[in-house]
């Protein structure tokens, strides 16, 4: 018998049944504390939860004791993560949804509310880019228009609109729908997942950079708007993390680092890509109403120094 349990057995005659129940509950809650944050009794909604980074967010929230609603346009991917959470003893349910469709969001919100209760935490992580909204080269050169390269002039309207809608409007609409649960309830949080490209646009992806810049700006606006309503609003701006969406840009088909990867790592003082779990600390800090209770409206970089580096 370990010392902790022996001590508890010794104290048993002096504890009421209520006291024993409280002791057991406290011990269970200690196991759920993740990086100092206990989310027992909270309900969290995560969009983009079928992806690598947002799937990690969902798992971290569940480990900290939150019930988690996983939303993704790819229901199968979201359900896989939800199943992992349930098998680990957590509470999770997956829902297929297009975050650019407000009626669909409202329908899913009603289902989440009936099954898991009102939303306390919203993680807006759905996002992405399209090749139709990119340029092939960093610099425009005379002759490119006639060459077989995608220039600024070739970017398609539908691709541009799609990237803007997914990365900005998707977060905007999701806040409209789920933040209604939070108004007037202390301790609620919205975390938008922006990007290092919001503050300093990366080459070749002008539309994505503009869209996440809009999301960061909206984060600050919403933080002020909800400041007296019990809701803190912040954003996390990841630097370079390898995901399904950018793997093809960072590595060649043979698995070797692409030329762009060398530039990325050279511009990241820590000289490596981030690990998904390294975003979990930022998330847990911002959600901790004791440690971060006076923090709202910030964009927290998690980028290995990328945003601080001038290049010289």
UniProtKB/TrEMBL annotation:
InterPro entries from the UniProt entry: NAD(P)-bd_dom_sf, SDR_fam
GO MF, one example: oxidoreductase activity, acting on the CH-OH group of donors, NAD or NADP as acceptor
One Pfam family, short name: adh_short_C2
Coiled coil: none
UniProt KW keywords: Oxidoreductase
Gene3D superfamilies recorded: NAD(P)-binding Rossmann-like Domain (3.40.50.720)
Family, as annotated: Belongs to the short-chain dehydrogenases/reductases (SDR) family.
NCBIfam families cross-referenced by the UniProt entry: PRK08277.1 (NF006132)
PANTHER family: 3-OXOACYL-[ACYL-CARRIER-PROTEIN] REDUCTASE FABG (PTHR42760:SF115), SHORT-CHAIN DEHYDROGENASES/REDUCTASES FAMILY MEMBER (PTHR42760)
Protein name: D-mannonate oxidoreductase
Organism encoding this protein: [Clostridium] clostridioforme CAG:132
């Amino acid at each position: 018998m370990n010392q902790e349990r022996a001590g508890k057995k010794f104290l048993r005659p002096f504890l009421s049944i209520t006291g024993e129940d409280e002791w057991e509950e406290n011990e269970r809650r200690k196991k759920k504390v993740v990086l100092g944050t206990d989310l027992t009794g909270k309900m969290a909604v995560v969009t983009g939860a079928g992806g690598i980074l947002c799937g990690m967010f969902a798992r971290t929230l569940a480990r900290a004791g939150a019930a988690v609603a996983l939303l993704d346009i790819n229901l199968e991917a979201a359900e896989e993560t939800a199943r992992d959470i349930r098998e680990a003893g957590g509470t999770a349910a997956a829902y297929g949804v297009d975050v650019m469709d407000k009626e669909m969001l409202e329908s899913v919100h009603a289902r989440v509310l009936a099954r898991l209760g009102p939303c306390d935490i919203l993680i807006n992580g759905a996002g992405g880019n399209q090749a139709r909204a990119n340029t092939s080269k960093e610099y425009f050169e005379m002759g490119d228009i006639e060459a077989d390269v995608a220039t600024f002039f070739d970017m398609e309207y539908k691709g541009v609109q799609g990237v803007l809608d997914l990365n900005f409007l998707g977060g905007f609409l999701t806040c409209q729908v789920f933040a209604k649960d939070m108004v007037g309830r202390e301790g609620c949080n919205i975390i938008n997942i922006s990007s290092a490209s919001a503050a300093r646009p990366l080459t070749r992806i002008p539309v994505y950079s503009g869209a996440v810049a809009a999301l960061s700006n909206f984060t600050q606006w919403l933080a002020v708007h909800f400041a007296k309503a019990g809701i803190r609003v912040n954003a996390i701006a990841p630097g370079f993390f390898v995901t399904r969406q950018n793997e093809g840009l960072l590595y060649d088909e043979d698995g070797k680092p692409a030329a762009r990867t060398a530039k990325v790592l050279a511009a990241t003082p820590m000289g490596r890509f981030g690990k998904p779990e390294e975003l979990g600390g930022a998330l847990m800090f911002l959600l901790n109403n004791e440690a971060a209770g006076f923090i709202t409206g910030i964009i927290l970089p998690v980028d290995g120094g990328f945003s601080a580096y001038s290049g010289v």
